[in-house]
Amino acid sequence: MANFNTHLSIAAAASTGAALICVNVHLIAITDMPWLVFLGTVGGMLPDIDANNSRPVKLLFNVLALMGVATALQVFEGTYSSYRLLSIAAVTYLVIRYGVFSLFNNLTVHRGVFHSVMAAVFFALLIICVSYHFVHWDVLHAWLNGLFIALGFIVHLFLDEFCSVNLSNVRVKKSFGTAMKLFSYNNMTASVLLTICTLALYWIAPSPIPLVNVWEASDWDDYLTPVRFLQQ
Ligand SMILES: [Zn+2]
After folding, report:
1. Do 64 and 149 have their domain in common?
2. I need a surface site. Which of 157, 164, 167, 195 has the fewest CB within 10 A?
3. Whether the predicted model's global pTM rises above the 0.90 cut
4. Strand, helix or coil for residue 108
């Protein structure tokens, strides 16, 4: 299993490369790049959210807790005195950061259902639906958001699988085959649940046709020009 920093840098490098290609073929503007690279890097952290006490999961629950506090303050603002509001904010933070977090830890096993290709598709579709329906991004950018999350995710799975093979003496570690899998075969209930959620998200997601059209109209010649130049 690759460590946190390796995952971080490889995911960032892969998404930078992919974003550069997108800019090169005029699929996106250069100003879109930092956001997509950020999403690709986040995608590269996601598969390990089921590793108890890993850095990504702690960070994720800190962010979720702060989002919960912001929502609670918005809902109860004007209803309670500032002293009570402060108590509500503190309780909300503690419940999400420690209560929901320990529940999540008890329900998930590392390299379980979240460490699979199906989870990559699930998270990609989730971000597509949120970007399109809640943040009201256009179809092209909503789908690119999802695709970059999936890219980082898949790179993470490949990297873990690659690290389970000891290249110097070609000894295959015990963990081989646990990183890159379509589903979690040990927990079929969770796998079926995740598949149902993924199908539901696909149903809710906007059609990718506009992305496909832009993709086909993109100037791939621009991207291929340096290659052709080298071939001559
Ligand atoms: Zn991993």
Report:
1. no
2. 167
3. no
4. coil
231 CA → ligand 1 middle, Å: 39
pLDDT for 121-174, tens place per residue? 999 999 999 889 888 888 999 999 999 999 999 999 999 888 765 544 445 555
- Reported as type and span, the H/E element at residue 13 is helix 4-24
Domain co-membership, 44 together with 132: yes
Round to whole Å and give the CA distance between 90 and 64: 14
Instruction: Please indicate, yes or no, whether residues 81 and 61 belong to a single structural domain of this protein.
Output: yes
Q: Please indicate, yes or no, whether residues 100 and 127 belong to a single structural domain of this protein.
A: no
3-state secondary structure of 165: strand
pLDDT in tens, 2-16: 678 888 999 999 999
Centre of ligand 1 from the C-alpha of residue 226, in Å: 36
Does residue 184 share a domain with residue 83? no
- Ligand 1 geometric centre to CA of 186 (Å): 17
Candidates 114, 144, 127; CA nearest to 202 is 127
Structural domain of 59? 52-109
**Whole-number Å distance between alpha carbons of 121 and 104:** 21
**Token duo for residue 162:** 């690659």
Same-domain pairing of 139 and 189 = yes
| Whether 82 and 174 share a structural domain | no
Q: Domain total for the chain?
A: 2
Alpha-carbon span 92 to 162, nearest angstrom: 41
State the distance from the centre of ligand 1 to the C-alpha of 148, rounded, in angstroms. 17
Ligand 1 centre to CA of 3 (Å) is 8
For 46, the token pair is: 């996601």
Residues 161, 132 within the same domain: yes
